[in-house]
Every structure is written in C-alpha cells, then in structure tokens.
Amino acid sequence: MAAVLPSSTDPAIAGRAARDSRANRLDGHRLMPYALVLPATLYLLVFQGYPLLRELMLSFTSTSLLSPADGQWVGLQNYADLWRDPDFHRVIFTTLLYTAACVASAIGLGLGSALLLDAPFRGRGIARALVTIPWAAPPVAVALIFIWIYNAQYGVFGHTLRFFGIEAGQENWLDSMQHAMPAVLITTIWQIFPFASVVLLAALQGVPSELREAAVMDGADRLSVFKAVVWPTIRPSVALLALFSTIWSLRRFDLIWLLTQGGPVGSTNTLVIDLYRRAFVNHHLGQAAAVGMVGVVIALAVTLVYFRYTARAEKQGAR
Amino acid sequence: MSAAASAPMPAMSMRHALRMLAVLALLGAAAFPIYWMLVTSLTPSEALFGDRPQMLPSFSRLPVYGEVFAIKPVATWLLNSAWVAIGTTVLSIGLAVFPAYALSRFRFGGKGAIGFGLFATQMLPEAMLVVPLYAIFSQLSLLNTLSGLILANTAFTVPVITWILKGAIDGVPIEVEEAARIDGCSRIGIVLQVVVPLIAPTLAAAAVISFFHGWNEYVFAQTLITEERLHTASVGLAGFIGELSTPLDAVMAVGVMYTLPAVAFYLVVQRHVVSGMTAGSVKG
C-alpha cells in the first residue's frame, strides 16, 4: 500500500520547508484520502460489486446451471414468473415471518438479559462473558447439535416436553409442518440474542445514573424510570440493532439450510434458501438471481426506513 | 457497588435471589447446547439411544477424541479452517485500516458514497454471490484453492471492520497526530506508528471478528471447493448431517473440537471484542 505513496515514506528529509514541499506532497494533497481508500474499494468492486452486477444480468436470462453458456435474454420474464408464483409469495411471507420473529425476540431477550446483567452482583463479569457463548459458536456446529437435540425419540428436547406431558414432544420438530419454523427460530434466536445483549449492555452504561437515582427518589416506579430515563438513551442502539438483525436474518443461510433445507413442504423456505434451491437443486440460475435481487431490494427498503427514522429522531432530539 | 449488595435488607435479598435465579437460568440456556455436545461426545452409544438421556459426561469415553482422527481427516479440516481464518484476518485488517482512517479523518467528495457502499455489502447474501463468484473464480483459477476462499471471505469482513475501526479512530484525539506530524512523520507513518497502537483493543476485536468469519464460513467453502483434501471443518462437519455411518459420539467429538477453540479464543479476548464492537456500532 505504501507503494502508492513513495514520496511520503521518504525519511531523508531535513528542515520544515523541505518536508512541507516534498515529503508531504500527497499528505496535504486532496488526493490523499482517495489513495487511502483505493485498495479496499478496488477489492470490494472486484469481489462484491462485479459479482452483484453479473447476478443482476443473470436475472434477465434463462441461464441453466447445466449449460451456463446457453442462457437466453428473457428480459423481465423471471421477475414476472416470480410475481405470479404462489410458492414465491409464500417464500416472501416465510422470510418476513422469520425475520420479524428473529428481530423482535433477539432484541427483547437481549434487552432483558442486558438489564439483568447490568445490575451489580458477584460474578457479573463471568456471567457477562458466558452469556456470549452462543454467539461464538460456529453455525454448522450449532445446526449439528440442535438436530440431535430435536431428535424425536432420543433428543433431549422431546424428552423434556414429554416429561411435562406436552403432546408435541412426540415428534421431531424439524420434520413437522407446524413446528419446523419454531424449531428453526429457537435455534436462531439462541445464537443471535447475545449480540443484542452485548450491544445493549454497552448502551446501558450511557444511562446517566444521577437521572435514574433522581427519578427513583421522586418515587417513580421501575417501568416509568425505564420509559423516561433508560429507553431514550438506548433507543438509537435498539434501532441500529433492529436494522442489523433484520439484514442478517434476511440473508441467513447456513443455519436454516443445515437444519431443514427449507422444508418440510417449504415451511422454512426463506428467500435465501429458495434462491439456493432454485440455483443448485432446480438448476435455474436466472430465476435464482431474480430471487436474490428481490432480497436485495427488501434489504434496501429496510435500510431506507431506518435512515428516515434516525434522521427524524435526530431532528426531534435537536429541537 | 458490591458494598451495597453485601449488606442487603430482607426485601432486597428476596429480589436479589430472584434476580440470581434468572441469571442462572439465562446462563444455563446459553451454555446448554454446547454442554450437550460435549456430553453427547462422551456418552457410550447404548446410552445415547436409551430411554432417558444421560446428563453427565463419562470421561472414560475420552479416547473417542483420538479415534475420530482415524475415521475422518479431521486434522486436515481443522488446519484448513485455521489457515482460512488466519488469512482472512490478516487480509481484512490490512485492507481495512487505511480506508477506516480516511473515513474518520478526511472530508472528501464521494465519502458518503463509499460509506454507503460499505454498508450496502451487508445486504448481499453470500448464497446469492456464490454463482457469479464461481464464474469469476474459474476464470482466475481460484477454484479449489484456500486462498480463493480467503479472498471471498475477506470481501464480507472488510466493510464491517472498516466501520468498526473508523469508530475507534474517531475516538483518537487529533492532537496526538499533530504532534507526530510536527516531528516529521508521514501520513502512513502516523497511521501505522501512532494511530494503530492507540486502537489496539479495537484492532483485536476486528481480528477476532474476521477470524471467526473465516473459521465459521460454510457456503463458499462448500461450493468453491470440491477437492476433499481442501475441505474446511465447517464442510466436513456439515457432511455428517444425514450421514449414518459415523457413530454419533464421534461426530459430536469433531463438533466439540471445532467449537471449543472458537469459544475459548473468544472468551479470552471477549473484553476487547465487546468494547470494539460497541465502539463501532453504538456510534454508528
């Protein structure tokens, strides 16, 4: 990287004037920031931008995985097919359901655990570290252990449900139309809530303790203290978490794919799973690309909503 | 703080006990699946498929951890994963430090576009880029190479890390740099010799995040690599799903060997990760 800026690394300079005119030629130059961002930008253009462009082009063709060279330009045909495909409508619904449930639960559970771990108690440091374990576990290993936990006959999940006399403990949740989605959600939320917990725990450190104490002195109950003092401080973090967990849930692949492959009968078939299926099971690359583009548009829409929301919140805060 | 907790009133202690109970339940839920993987790996087969699950590990079963190496090329898998993870880490940090500095310290045309571009990469699912990346990789002869995998993974870590590092650099007072400038340091020199040491904790966080990304990654490792000797642990482990010939305790032993280093490594550095992540994310 330094090779881009040969003059600025030259150490044999004496005197301020010489330094200003020569060694720092690029330092003071308006091109300096561009030189700094160039390598990473080029890299991302090659490995993210260009593939995205190719995928976009692919979505206007009838390319098949079996004979990738024979793709025909079909215009918006793939998109029109998706628009009319009731299975794809279901995919959208499943994706939104999965995403909403993930985001709401991760933030809810994250906030609950953050509040729990914010109060002082002995061993708090260890507890804070331990609660992040699920986040550190590799998704493939998580899928593997949860498949065993959900095993109908021998899994500890079914054993526990049956112990409490719950009927649903008789079946393998991952193989059941009604229960596959809850099972996938339990696994996902287990894995992602620590992230919310960690971020919110840090946000809680920003709550002014004098304000909190003053509110308690005034006889405010816990809920109103939370609403009046705690919530306004952590709200930006909650919004940011909502954005990130939405985007991450929209694109989550490995966990769902390994748990159910989108089944049974499409009950956990989210957009990314559907895209992978269309490409590698049905060999229809063009259609898969169109599905991917729909996903990108949804993510973009979510992001725009977030930025509008934060812009408005900032304006209100400024007043 | 602890002084107040050590002299509680009766009502306080009741509340405290409930709180402790909730904390224990939370930790139990968080740790259980990992614990269960460990227990399953150390349970004899007949007990695994018995009427009641065995809740405690039988440490006499420990030799299974040696036996799995004879059943599957576990050592190769783990080494490949380690190589991919380390490569991803080094490349990600190398690529992210300077743009992070530029985004933090300069105002320049196109800065907003670059910032948005970095963010937008978060929206692209890996699964969507598999097909075009496969085509590009076959042109560049990068298929079936671990370096190719590193290149693909780094494309997903650089944006996040740039953002996190920018957050940290925002917190470094500009005066520190000005002092170094007066001493005749070049801009690159300032970044490497002044700024980087000051953001070391965040750098550690960034390293951990990219290491994990490389260690955990599955989709690319599954599709861009077909040669068995180049399989990573994620692909090797995923291959056990639906496969019945390998005993379950052996499978779980591999799972533990793949998970435990990650979790242990994380626990050692988690303080830095947490502060780094939040420095980057909370400030936005």
Number of strands of chain B: 0
The outline of chain B comes out as: globular
- Give the mean pLDDT of chain B: 87
Q: What is the count of β-strands of chain A?
A: 0
Quick overview of this protein structure:
Chain A has 319 residues and is mainly alpha-helical.
Can you put this structure into words, describing what you see?
The complex is a heterodimer of chains A (about 325) and B (about 280). With about 325 residues, chain A is an all-alpha fold. Chain A contains 14 helices and no strands. Helix content of chain A is about 70%, strand content about 0%. The radius of gyration of chain A is 26 Å and the shape is globular. Chain B is mainly α. Chain B folds into 2 domains: about 60 residues, no CATH class; about 210 residues, MetI-like fold. Helix content of chain B is about 75%, strand content about 0%. Chain B has 14 helices and no strands. Chain B is globular. The two termini of chain B are about 30 Å apart. Classes of the chains: A mainly alpha (about 325), B mainly alpha (about 280). Chains A and B meet through helix 2, helix 4, helix 5, helix 6 and helix 7 of A and helix 1, helix 2, helix 5, helix 6 and helix 7 of B.
Keywords:
heterodimer; A: 319 residues; mainly alpha; MetI-like fold; 2 domains; 14 helices; 69% helix; disordered N terminus; B: 284 residues; 0% strand; globular
What is the element layout, followed by pairings?
The complex is a heterodimer of chains A (319) and B (284).
Chain A: H1 16-23, H2 32-58, H3 77-84, H4 86-118, H5 124-130, H6 133-136, H7 139-149, H8 156-163, H9 180-204, H10 209-217, H11 222-250, H12 254-260, H13 271-280, H14 285-318
Helix pairs in contact in A: 2-14, 3-14, 4-9, 4-11, 7-12, 9-11, 9-12, 10-11, 11-14, 13-14
Chain B: H1 2-6, H2 10-41, H3 45-48, H4 64-71, H5 74-105, H6 111-120, H7 126-139, H8 146-170, H9 174-182, H10 187-198, H11 200-216, H12 219-223, H13 233-238, H14 248-283
Helix pairs in contact in B: 2-14, 4-14, 5-8, 5-11, 8-11, 8-14, 9-10, 11-14
